[in-house]
Design goal:
Elements lengths: L5 E2 L3 H11 L8 E2 L12 E12 L4 E12 L2 H14 L5 E2 L2 E2 L2 E10 L9 E12 L1 E2 L3
Parallel strand pairs: 2-3
Antiparallel strand pairs: 1-9, 3-4, 4-8, 5-6, 7-8
């Protein structure tokens, strides 16, 4: 019996696309890296996959992702984090990836950013359960 290879979704990109398209975050750069020219004082959301585990019986990728929310001051960074936090429970699909479950692992936590000394940053961690599909032959 021949088996097809699996197609793992790019969870970072699918979640970034979803958040970027939300009107609550209009004008906020969202991606897997800080925007060009970023110095830590602008509004932005950066997603970083920290790991996770693949459940082969269910064909589910349990991706753990950190979301860094930045703003020009602490209050603005917190507002960006709360806007992201408010829309993530609405994520069920993005860019062809189906998300049966989204779970917050750590709510907004203010953390200094050693790369940008003036940055105001809130960090959150989420588990995104994404369906994995087979690549047709």
């Amino acid at each position: 019996m021949a088996q097809e290879p699996l197609v793992f979704p790019d969870v970072e990109q699918a979640v970034a696309d979803f958040v970027r398209a939300r009107p609550e975050l209009s004008g906020v750069p969202v991606g897997t890296a800080v925007p060009p020219g970023f110095d830590g004082t602008q509004r932005a959301v950066v997603l970083t996959r920290l790991g996770g585990v693949y459940l082969d019986d269910d064909r589910l990728d349990n991706a753990e992702v950190r979301l860094d929310s930045y703003g020009p001051d602490k209050t603005a960074a917190h507002a960006v984090a709360l806007a992201v936090r408010g829309v993530l429970p609405l994520l069920t699909a993005s860019g062809g990836t189906v998300f049966p479950d989204v779970t917050e692992l750590q709510g907004p936590c203010f953390v200094l950013d050693r790369r940008h000394s003036d940055a105001n940053r809130y960090v959150m961690r989420y588990r995104f359960v994404a369906q994995v599909v087979s690549r047709p032959a």
